[in-house]
Amino acid sequence: MVKLIGYKKIRTAVFISGTGSNLKSLIKFSKTKKSPISINLIISNNAKAKGLKLGKINKIIKKVFIFKKKNKIENQILSVLKEHEIKMICLAGFMKILSENFIRKFKGKILNIHPSLLPKYKGLNTHQRALNNKEKYSGCTVHFVNSKLDSGKIILQKKVKISKNETKDSLAKKVLNQEHKLYPKAILKMFNL
Ligand code: GAR
Q1: Which of 16, 70, 85, 177 has the most CB atoms around its CB within 10 Å?
Q2: Which atom of ligand 1 has the smallest separation from the CA of 24?
Q3: How far is the CA of 164 from the centre of ligand 1 (A)?
């Protein structure tokens, strides 16, 4: 478990690739008194990510990195993180896999949210796969990031019931609603709050 030193909020970067609804919920949470983190940087691999608009609205610096040569880009990201004194990273719908070298530099300080009850349905297309397997429940997981895809230590999970006429879109919506609550809760848990 990570211990909080003093009362200064932990400078955090959120990595996104798309809509950024989890980013939005994290920004809202970060502004509350009980939040141990502040969000000081938004990073995206996609210049068209809708979530980037949240940077302007909330006056948070945003940077886009196009992942062509992964090592080179990751080194550039690492120097931006250093420049902004970032101590923690929340992946929120970030669709790139970070290298072992990058993860090592932020060991135990990178979290991810995944739209399934891990260890079930790692990777992509989780909702359709859960439906194909006639699962009764699905859900979401916040976990530490390690070098294996969606495999780091689980911090918190939330189960949702799959209804009779569930489609992949209705399930995605249902799970996403829970994700917005789960990520802040997991951060509080991580800091023993
Ligand atoms: C969320 O459902 C998140 O769990 C998922 O992408 C969505 C992003 O939504 N992440 C992954 O699938 C990561 N493998 P958002 O951009 O609205 O937060």
Answers
A1: 16
A2: 18
A3: 24
Question: What number of residues does the chain have?
Answer: 193
pLDDT tens digits along 68-103: 999 999 999 999 999 999 999 999 999 999 999 999
Residue 18 in contact with ligand 1 by CB distance below 6 A: yes
For residues 13 and 73, membership in a common domain is answered with: yes
CA atoms within a 13 Å half-sphere pointing along the CA-CB vector of 186: 28
Q: Which domain holds residue 177?
A: 115-141+158-193
Beta-carbon-side half-sphere exposure of residue 47 (alpha carbons within 13 Å): 3
Q: What are the Cα distances from residue 18, in Å, to 53, 58, 132, 145?
A: 11, 17, 25, 20
Answer yes or no: do 17 and 81 share one domain: yes
pTM of the model: 0.96
If asked whether residues 102 and 39 sit together in one domain, one would say yes
Q: What is the pLDDT of residues 139-179, one digit of tens each?
A: 999 999 999 999 999 999 999 999 999 999 999 999 999 99
Q: Is the CB of 114 under 6 A from ligand 1?
A: yes
